[in-house]
Amino acid sequence: MVIDLERWREGGYTTKIVEWMELQKRMRIYELGSLPPFLLVFAGNIAAVDHKWNQHGLGGDNFRGLCRDLHPGPVSLLHWSGKGKPWVRLDASRPCPLDALWAPYDLLQTPSAIDF
């Protein structure tokens, strides 16, 4: 996510997002993590970021738990968005191939977790 901080402050977006989060705390209105408050506040007034800047979706398919591959070409940021987190899959000895990219940064790693 790339934000124009001047527009952010002028628009009072922090307050608007916090209001949706407080509503969510009182009565569950969405299920998809931290993204919905932003979607509700910006209501489609967004621009896509090219996948070379954000390789999202490495958390796999939220419905079937399938592993995903990298987009073709260069990538600047690896983003394990979705339910499948590499630390969980590695600990369960059920990693996706790309989880090996994350394994060296696991501070709680066990030797067997990265030998796959």
Based on the model shown, name its key terms:
116 residues; 5 helices; 34% helix; transmembrane; Nucleotide-diphossugar_trans
| Order of secondary-structure elements | HHHHH
Proportion of helical residues: 25-40%
Count of alpha/pi helices: 5
Backbone shape: globular
Largest sheet: none
List segments where confidence is low: pLDDT < 50 over at least 5 consecutive residues. Answer: none
Strands, count: 0
- Tell me the strand percentage band: under 5%
> What is the end-to-end distance?
33 Å
Gyration radius, rounded: 17 Å
SS content category: mainly alpha
For the residues shown, what is the average pLDDT?
Answer: 84
Please characterize this protein's 3D structure.
The protein has 116 residues and is an all-alpha fold. The chain has helices at residues 5-11, 13-26, 35-42, 86-91, 99-102.
